[in-house]
Specification:
The protein has 274 residues and is mainly alpha-helical. Helices cover 59% and strands 2% of the residues. It contains twelve helices and two strands. It has a two-stranded antiparallel sheet with strand order 1-2. Strand 1 and strand 2 form a beta hairpin. The chain is globular, with a radius of gyration of 20 Å. About 7% of the residues have low confidence.
């Protein structure tokens, strides 16, 4: 990681998890790059909270204009979140594999099961859906870490592991836990669901966390121009990126990856005007 990325994660750890971190000195240009990185990964709020916690540090030098920029970004994010509606395709209570989805619905419909455990299951699945379609979502990982810190003591991890195994998502859970350790300094004691040795592939996976070329699923939606019979995609390279991403994460979600790709393809076709 470069200095911008290191400070980015330091500020998230401070703002979201209350950890004590010392930021490294950066130029105005690099602070602007960090600002753009936070906006791109939808983490303006935890990063800004981290900046507030570290504002008295010797190397924390932001201009008045930059402070105003952060405050404005935070206010806009709060307004946006109030009216946000999640993409129907990325719903956490739905899997594209019909067999697995039946199992998931059976789990969610069981009113006798623990609510906190079901909630963490939905968080795990939500991150998995974003991983396959948009890349690893830092904001959702922060939300997972926050939930574990606040509600982890209520979760029945034995039951959760059983559910995830039946949904073929056990490796995904391991991936998410390892990322929490690597990115946000979680300990093994805080992640009782981790099993065996840490997956070395996670280091390669983590590179995607800070890529500035983060391609969204909507980038390869198909569109059709007025008075034209030709259909085209909005981003010629996005579909290839989606294919590579599906191959990269096949190990973590083998039964869901293939059906997700074709479901995503079909979903993209819905953007064609009739």
């Amino acid at each position: 990681m470069n200095i911008v990325q290191r400070n980015f994660f330091r500020l998230i750890r401070c703002g979201a998890f209350g950890q004590k971190e010392q930021v490294e000195p950066m130029s105005v240009c690099k602070w602007n790059n960090l600002y753009q990185l936070a906006l791109m990964h939808d983490t303006a709020e935890p990063v800004y909270q981290g900046i507030l916690q570290c504002k008295d540090q010797f190397f924390m030098h932001l201009s008045e204009c930059q402070w105003q920029q952060w405050a404005k970004a935070l206010e806009e994010r709060r307004k946006k979140s109030a009216g946000d509606e999640e993409d129907e395709f990325l719903r956490a209570d739905h899997l594209t594999n019909p067999v697995l989805n039946l199992k998931l619905q059976s789990i969610l419909d069981d009113e006798g099961s623990d609510v906190s455990t079901r909630q963490l299951l939905l968080i795990v699945i939500r991150i998995g859906r974003h991983i396959l379609n948009e890349g690893i979502p830092i904001r959702q990982l922060v939300e997972m870490g926050t939930y574990l810190r606040q509600e982890g003591h209520r979760v029945d991890f034995f039951t959760l592991r059983k559910w995830l195994k039946s949904l073929s998502l056990g490796q995904l859970f391991q991936l998410e836990g390892t990322l929490l350790m690597q990115m946000f300094n979680f300990t093994e004691e805080e992640l009782p669901f981790l099993e065996g040795k840490r997956d070395r592939r996670v280091e390669q996976v983590a590179v995607e966390l800070t890529e500035f070329t983060n391609t969204r699923a909507k980038d390869f939606y198909f569109t059709q121009e007025n008075n034209s019979v030709f259909v085209h995609t909005s981003n010629g390279t996005a579909m290839l990126g989606h294919i590579r991403r599906s191959a990269r994460y096949f190990h973590y979600m083998p039964s869901e990856t293939i059906t997700n790709f074709f479901a995503s393809f079909a979903h993209s076709l819905s953007h064609i005007e009739e």
